[in-house]
Amino acid sequence: MNWGSWSAFWDMGGRGLFVWGSYGALLIMVITELAALRHTRKAALRALQEDHDS
After folding, report:
1. What are the C-alpha distances in Å from 2 to residues 5, 6, 10, 22, 53?
2. Which of 2, 20, 46, 48 is deepest in the core (most CB within 10 A)?
3. pLDDT-based confidence at 16, cuts 50/70/90?
4. Which of 24, 23, 2, 20 is nearest to 10 (CA)?
């Protein structure tokens, strides 16, 4: 597509709120998933270290 200006690009033909809202929701989900994976990994490593120490 070819937009005439930046404001037309952000508006996306009147669907900008849906488009950019979808990207925002995806970004939040990806960040949440990465944080959950990091937490799970740390917990697993901590449990392995405790098993090794005992």
Report:
1. 9, 11, 12, 21, 63
2. 20
3. very high
4. 20
